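Ticket opened by: R.M.
Priority: normal
Category: complex prediction / small molecule

The reporter submitted a protein together with 2'-deoxycytidine-5'-monophosphate and asked that the result be attached to this ticket for the collaborator who will pick it up next week. Submitted input follows.
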Amino acid sequence: MRGPDRVGRAGRAGRAGRAGWAGKDFPCPAHQPYLPYLPYLPYPPYPPYLPLTKPIIAIDGPSGAGKGTVAREVAIALGYRHVDSGAMYRAVGWKALQEHVALDSDEAVSKLASASRIDVSTARVLIDGTDVTRAIRTPEIDRAATAVARLPGVRAVLVDRQRVLGERGAIVMEGRDIGTVVFPNADVKIYLDASPEERARRRASDPAHSGPTAVGEVATLLTARDEIDRTRAASPLYAAPDAVVVDTTGQNVDQVVREVLTVIRSKLKT
Ligand code: DC
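Result attached by the on-call engineer:
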């Protein structure tokens, strides 16, 4: 038999025993019982120390610095997706030429870009279902891509798409503004560079690109496009202040991939 409770109600025999925690008196808030339907865990149910998204690796740099090859190899080594954002500008440039849209009309090209479905995977590039993987690696598309990449409206459309692609993380995205504009909070930012001569040599011997193979001619074209990318008003190419600059001059692919993976692992502490 229990005695009267704190407000003077008479106690009933056995009630506390049948009702378990519910019938007991816990005057001190620090000693309130845990609710019986919540399991007692020594940590919160949604651990704040587990990241909700997986890492984003941004790789930027000028043409011929080795971004494509290095980003692909790094993505394979980490088991991440690889996205070549330059291929998106190339696909839009290709479509604008097909549809005789003026390459300097921001309104017309951004309308075309937002109406187009662009699929970029490591293996293939499709625009509205048409496979343009090879067609976008020509000198004509080099020029068209550089022209449309200057247009702020086109950039806005493609940057939105790139952010959607990166939403789930576990991605290596390469381009010119990935660490500065697309993902300013990327977990790791790498800026790949190489001497102009070496970049021209690499581009001249790249089987994915058609066009001139004389290194001098390639160097002239590359320098002209780089100048436009670096000096345009909308998202010019530059290394983010928190990017790690990797100079690939005189290094082979394996050496660069190893160096980039070392940077990534030390930043992610994996
Ligand atoms: O990397 P690439 O040569 O395929 O790029 C084609 C053009 O698109 C080039 O002029 C740079 C531009 N570009 C850009 O402005 N921003 C990006 N994120 C990627 C490429």
